[in-house]
């Protein structure tokens, strides 16, 4: 079994989902009392969120890189960032590590392809939705047409992530707001929706939607299990 390294705390709500998914999948595949060999370094999300809001990406890239280097030195065979947005730091990280980094957008693209979708809605933080680092992978590597919500709806999606989901707050009102946004995209031709923030699966699941739902938290964790057991 290869050892999985996790950069967590972005937020701890989704990091606990990763830990649960990894261990559940290992037990399912290997049976008995099997569980995941992993290393987690968890950050203070208040610090990360503040730097994101101020646009201090250079400091964040260095912070993520330093953590990845420490995790590799601690014995990790592969590294996962347990957050979609902080994959902005991947180019900087890859310059300093020698083990693979499993990119969540590439995992999402593979999942969309396997599910037969060509046009999808991308939900996530405003950084994930508005910047090109994530959409370009989906478009250029997988020929997926990516839709994002309008300005007002992007603010709704982003605000719920930071003010509610990051704190473990789940409300029926916010769920319905997300479902309304997904329905708009469905009416405009979306065949699926990528939950491109690792907290969104706390709120939205496949049974809530008529179109395909790609849970990036689950897909990322299961891809790590596959790597660890190959």
From TrEMBL:
One Pfam short name: Asp_Glu_race
UniProt KW Membrane keyword: no
Would the keyword Isomerase turn up in this protein's UniProt record?
yes
Which Gene Ontology MF annotations are present? amino-acid racemase activity
InterPro entries membership: Asp/Glu/hydantoin_racemase, Asp/Glu_race, Asp/Glu_racemase_AS_1, Asp/Glu_racemase_AS_2, Asp_race
Per UniProt, which keywords does this protein have? Isomerase
Name-wise, this protein is Aspartate racemase
Origin organism of this chain?
Maribacter hydrothermalis
Q: Which family does it belong to?
A: Belongs to the aspartate/glutamate racemases family.
